[in-house]
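Please fill in the sequence for the structure shown.

STRUCTURE ENCODING:
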């Protein structure tokens, strides 16, 4: 199937625009998943007795947990991206 030319009788969306839209949707889905997982894991780790508010130790624990989670995610993401680029160079 050729996405580079518009369908007959219509202007269509060009391939680059379509790819950009798909990439944007994937990035949004990944960010949502990251936030959900990070929230779940840090809440379970830091909040032992859920109540109407977080005490100071829970707030600090959550902040540190989220920072560590983001640092780890960034390391994994950079490493994965580097490996993909290296693999593409071999092809």
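FILLED IN BY: designer on duty
SEQUENCE:
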């Amino acid at each position: 199937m050729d996405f580079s030319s518009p369908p007959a009788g219509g202007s269509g969306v060009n391939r680059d625009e379509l790819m950009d839209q798909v990439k944007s949707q994937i990035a949004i889905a990944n960010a949502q998943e990251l936030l959900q997982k990070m929230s779940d894991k840090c809440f379970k780790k830091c909040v032992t007795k859920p109540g109407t508010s977080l005490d100071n130790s829970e707030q600090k624990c959550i902040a540190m947990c989220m920072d560590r989670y983001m640092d780890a995610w960034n390391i994994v993401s950079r490493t994965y991206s580097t490996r993909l680029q290296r693999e593409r160079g071999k092809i």
